[in-house]
Automatic annotation (TrEMBL):
InterPro entries: ERG24_DHCR-like. It is a multi-pass membrane protein. The chain crosses the membrane at residues 21-42, 115-134, 146-163, 207-224, 231-248, 268-286, 298-320. Keywords: Cholesterol biosynthesis, Cholesterol metabolism, Lipid biosynthesis, Lipid metabolism, Membrane, NADP, Oxidoreductase, Steroid biosynthesis, Steroid metabolism, Sterol biosynthesis, Sterol metabolism, Transmembrane, Transmembrane helix. Its EC number is 1.3.1.21. It is an enzyme of class 1 (oxidoreductase). This is 7-dehydrocholesterol reductase. Pfam families: ERG4_ERG24.
């Protein structure tokens, strides 16, 4: 388990290596069933997590369906879809943008083909169903197996990233130093794992197929609601509108994502692979999963009010992010609203010895709250 006690932990932790490694191992093993327990709460207990957890405690063997592999058909279908998504990410053209400097001073290129990727993916999901080759609610009908397939894929990606980081890292001076192999699996080794010069595993995983999956999952559960109940509720439409507003904005302004914590600071380990590939698409779509089984309808005025509140949250997020990006792009030579931009110049030195600078905005929405972009997303969510 232990590699070398002298190796520095990348977060500066001082806890003993063995207990911390055991904690990471338990986390990796125990978080996996969570998504199945949540789905069980929706399908078997009318949305009650308390009843789902109680059932798990009373009869864990009956509840731990997560420990089995997905059915052969769903596993194959999931693998084919991921392969198709990887091809789209590879072949679709897009302008090339530079990311933030890495800790070792590299400035990596990224192909901005997200919007075309999203459109092609959604059409590729809808077209076979429209032609009668499959069903619009195929994903929703087989959701438990899809969750299992996503869990398997996350573990495979974790192992791939571990082996690649140990044997053939893309930028070895950006690797994070962990103190055990289990820490390597949990946190990850490589900050920017790539195949070739531009095929970025983090962007594909979190910034392409999982973001697109949100829209496709919602469509599938809306179709399931129609199949079961014969209609689609205003609440379902409201949820889908707000989610797709965020998705389309993400792909339309994906340069913003290149400055995010996930891209700049998080290595690719189980934490990233499972969080982005399982937790994110399953938990973020809980509303449509629940509404498909429980078609709760609110008065139209209430639905419009909720929709308006969500749009207001989106506007806060959009304006705050745009203000920050504009000031950084112009190195501070930019007005924020009707005032000159005020900011703090934060200097740092990368491991290649080059001194760099980051601007911390103190104007616009940023002078009222530390992270107005997060507040906007919280309201929208």
């Amino acid at each position: 388990m232990q590699k070398d006690a002298s190796l520095a932990d990348d977060l500066g932790r001082k806890e003993p290596i063995v207990p911390r490694s055991i904690n990471y191992l338990l986390l990796m093993l125990l978080v996996t069933p969570l998504t199945s327990i949540w789905w069980s709460a929706i399908t078997d207990h009318n949305g009650s997590l308390q009843l789902s957890v109680t059932r798990f405690l009373v009869d864990p063997r009956a509840s731990l369906t997560w420990c089995f592999l997905p059915s052969h058909d769903i596993g194959v279908a999931f693998a084919k879809w991921i392969f198709f998504e990887a091809i789209l990410y590879t072949v679709l053209p897009g302008r090339v943008c530079a990311g933030q400097p890495t800790p070792s001073g590299h400035t990596l290129p990224y192909t901005m083909n997200g919007l075309s990727f999203f459109i092609c993916s959604v059409i590729s999901f809808l077209l076979p169903a429209a032609l009668g080759w499959t069903e619009f609610f195929f994903i929703a009908k087989n959701w438990r197996d899809v969750i299992l397939a996503a869990n398997v894929f996350a573990w495979l990606l974790t192992c791939l990233a571990f082996v690649k980081g140990r044997i053939a890292p893309s930028y070895k001076y950006d690797n994070r130093g962990n103190d055990s192999y289990i820490s390597d699996l949990w946190r990850g080794i490589e900050l920017h794992p790539r195949f070739g010069a531009a095929w970025d595993l983090k962007i594909f995983h979190n910034g392409r197929w999982t973001m697109t999956a949100l829209a496709i999952i919602d469509i599938s559960f809306a179709a399931l609601q129609w199949e079961i109940h014969g209609y689609i509720t205003y609440t379902m439409i409201c949820v889908m509108l707000l989610r797709n507003l965020l998705i389309v904005n993400f792909f339309g302004n994906e340069e913003w994502y290149l400055c995010s914590t996930e891209v700049c600071d998080e290595p690719f380990g189980f934490y990233f692979a499972w969080g982005s590939g399982v937790f994110f698409p399953t938990i973020y779509t809980l509303q449509t999963q629940y509404l498909a089984m429980n078609p709760i309808e609110l008065p139209l005025t209430h639905t419009i009010l909720i929709l308006s509140l969500g749009i207001a949250g989106f506007m806060v997020y959009y304006i705050a992010t745009e203000q920050k990006k504009a000031v950084n792009d112009t190195k501070g030579v930019h007005d924020v609203g009707d005032e000159m931009a005020q900011f703090i110049r934060a200097s740092y030195t990368t491991t290649d010895g080059v001194e760099r600078e980051s601007l911390l905005l103190c104007s616009g929405l940023w002078k009222y709250i530390r992270h107005p972009n997060y507040l906007g997303l919280l309201i929208l969510t």
